[in-house]
DNA sequence: TTGTATGCGTTATCAT
DNA sequence: ATGATAACGCATACAA
């Protein structure tokens, strides 16, 4: 940085600079090199590295000067061995969509970039027999600094209990938030307010004049599915409306299930004039069903999805969808894990927003239910 | 596994089993525990762990029995420190699409699952000032067991030179293969034969009667862009056709660039009856352009993409596209890196295939060029 | 074939 | 505030 090429070390002004001599060797610097060059013990160097308060400012500067000059970076392996924990964050997930995973990764990296922490990805299969054991081995063996859990396994009680037992810090990314969170889970979580965006989606449809609305849900047991449904219900309720049972159909967050569900809904008589799908995959399935029936979106059918996946803005007509700030969520999750602060916030909540595109329009004026 | 609960160790049949005693302590086993329990030195245990041939079969079994009973797993950190390298694979990439990254990751994991190796993801920015330095620090600090490079940075000569200098094993995943690979790069690579699938795409269009075909290329300098173009040219040439210059337009592998390119092509007079886009993102851009112009796919315009991205099978009409076995490619890359075999294959090639869907059809019989 | 002493690069303990 | 010495868990050199 701003260190002059010839520093005024106690070894004398015009003598051969031992630092320069060291740099000639072109070997990776260790704490020992720093110690001997700075003429202190390794322990003192270690204290500097770890920001121990019990180091004289003068000594600290001296050591830091050497560290910068020879480009010393402590070896994470050795450090980890001594600390008994690594500097690795584990990202564990079962099977979310690709874009979601990549966005989360990007967010995590926003946070850890330059911090010396790295992220190791660990997909798993929640239906596998050794699901828990496999994760246990992974976490234990790698001595992870922290774990980030994505939905839906972030809602797996057994997994959480095991991680508690393993005594590893972890953060859950989830849509769940509220009373059904019982018994209360104390681990930090980063939450997206799915409910809110879906509420907006419902109101949007109502304002467009739709009253006969189809709802394609997410898989039973998924917190996100529950939240989205409740948000949607709430939005309708604000206008004195509600979903009729026959227009509620179960999806599995897959394209195929959305297609089938929409086919079912559109075969009803009278058919719904709008469909809310609990994610974009299924909404696109509804597009396909509409196309097969020759229904034009949005003129004859309005569609809303959830995720604001890339396809939403690429398909014609553009898909109105609810967007959560996935990348921010990932970043926050990592921050929660590696922040120095003692009292880290236990729950961070992110709002979701309705992105209105061309897939939603006014109900056909002449449509007879 | 199949070890009886009470084993017949030399310590005596009905005496207090030292192994059981150890298991009571519920502490993570170390090599020392194994050594004392098996009544050998740590070194012998170490040899067993590392499959050293110079261990008597009997001794080996004895040690392995203890290892299994107490569930000993060598600590990667300590092992890495002694080995001077970690058991981590680095996946470095700049900005491919999300599905590609996730597929590659899945393939890598197919390979390393249960091997003790883990994968750490490292996105980077090839336009950043400290692009190389940043990667150097990463690789050096983590003492990576190997590096997997994705396109387009897998084609960056400076990066390759640096990795050579760092003496870290690495594999390149690329589309490039052939004479233009000069000066020859000796590092292992896993190659997809982009050329072949694109050749098939061209022939497919020709067979449907198309002669006036638009081509949207990938970014200049990308090996994949070059290969796809050449494959397509070759396919046309087999039927005595070739791309006319005015129908070749440059894309950037982005949705927007595909949209603009297609708009340009479709504004020509006479317009092309078919468009090949060098990836699906751009092909979907062409869909949008066609929709804006009121052109029906495939009746009035045939479209082919590349990647067989999820959107290809979800959009209506389904997009005919070239598919590469991404996951297999990822797996092979990992295998190349962690295989025990000395003479590991330097280049593995995977075929690509044309997936025909509904976006391609016969040229309109009455279309006058 | 097996064991002993030592090193890998860092932190923890306990002194001074 | 600083330092000598012993961990941390495993591998290597060199003996035996």
UniProtKB/TrEMBL annotation, chains A, B:
Stored PROSITE patterns: HTH_LACI_1, HTH_LACI_2
Q: Which GO terms describe its molecular function?
A: DNA binding
Transmembrane parts of this sequence: none
Q: Which UniProt keywords apply?
A: DNA-binding, Transcription, Transcription regulation
In what residue span(s) does the HTH lacI-type domain sit?
29-83
**Which Pfam families does the entry link to?**
LacI, Peripla_BP_3
Q: What is the name of the protein in this document?
A: LacI family DNA-binding transcriptional regulator
């Amino acid at each position: 940085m701003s260190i002059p090429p010839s520093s005024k070390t106690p070894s004398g002004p015009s003598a051969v600079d031992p630092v320069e001599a060291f740099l000639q060797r072109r070997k990776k610097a260790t704490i020992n090199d720093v110690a001997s060059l700075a003429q202190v013990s390794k322990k003192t160097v270690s204290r500097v590295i770890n920001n121990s308060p019990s180091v004289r400012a003068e000594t600290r500067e001296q050591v830091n000067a050497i560290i910068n000059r020879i480009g010393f970076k402590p070896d994470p392996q050795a450090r980890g061995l001594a600390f008994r924990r690594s500097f690795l964050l584990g990202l564990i997930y079962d099977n979310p969509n690709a874009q979601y995973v990549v966005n989360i990764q990007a967010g995590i990296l926003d946070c850890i970039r330059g911090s010396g922490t790295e992220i190791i990805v660990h997909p798993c299969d929640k239906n596998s027999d050794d699901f828990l054991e496999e994760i246990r081995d992974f976490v234990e063996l790698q001595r992870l600094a922290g774990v980030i859990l994505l939905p839906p396994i972030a809602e797996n009680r057994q997994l959480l209990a095991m991680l508690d037992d393993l005594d590893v810090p972890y953060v859950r990314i989830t849509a769940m938030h509220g009373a059904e969170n019982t018994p209360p889970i104390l681990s930090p979580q980063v939450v997206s307010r799915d409910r809110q965006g879906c509420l907006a989606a419902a109101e949007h449809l109502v304002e467009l004049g739709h009253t006969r609305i189809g709802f394609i849900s997410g898989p039973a047991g998924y917190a996100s599915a529950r939240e989205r449904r409740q948000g949607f219900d709430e939005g309708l309720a604000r206008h004195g409306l509600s979903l009729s049972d026959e227009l509620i159909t179960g999806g599995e967050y897959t394209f195929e299930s959305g297609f089938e569900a929409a086919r079912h809904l559109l075969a009803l008589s009278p058919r719904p004039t709008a469909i809310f799908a609990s994610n974009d995959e299924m909404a696109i399935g509804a597009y396909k069903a509409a196309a097969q029936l020759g229904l034009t979106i949005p003129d004859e059918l309005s569609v809303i999805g959830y995720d604001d996946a890339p396809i939403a803005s690429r398909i014609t007509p553009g898909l109105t969808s609810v967007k959560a700030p996935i990348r921010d969520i990932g970043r926050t999750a990592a921050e929660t894990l590696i922040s120095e602060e003692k009292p880290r916030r236990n729950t961070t909540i992110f709002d979701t927003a309705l992105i209105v595109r061309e897939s939603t329009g006014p109900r056909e004026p002449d449509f007879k239910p």
